[in-house]
Amino acid sequence: MDEPMLLLLLGSGLAFVFAVLLWKLLITTVGIVASQWAVITGLPDEPVAQVLALAIPALLAAFALLYLPSIAARSAVRSTRVLVKGAHR
Prior knowledge:
By secondary structure, the chain is mainly alpha-helical. The protein has helices at residues 3-21, 23-42, 47-66, 68-88.
C-alpha cells in the first residue's frame, strides 16, 4: 500500500472517530442550520425573521462559549470544597 492511500485511510479513520465523539454537537448544528435555511428560504421578504434566525443561535453559542466554562469551573470548585469539608469531619 502506498503512503498517500495509508494517509487517506488514517485521516478518514480519525475524522470518523472525531464525528462519533462529537455526534451531539453535529446533530445540533445540523438542526440549527436546517432551521435557519428554512426560515431564510421560506421568508425571503422578512428581514426581521432572517435576522432572528441567524442571531438567536449566534447569541446562544456566544453565551455557551463565554459563560458556561466559568459556571462549570465554579461548580467544580464548590463540589471539591464540599468533599474536603466532609473529609475533615
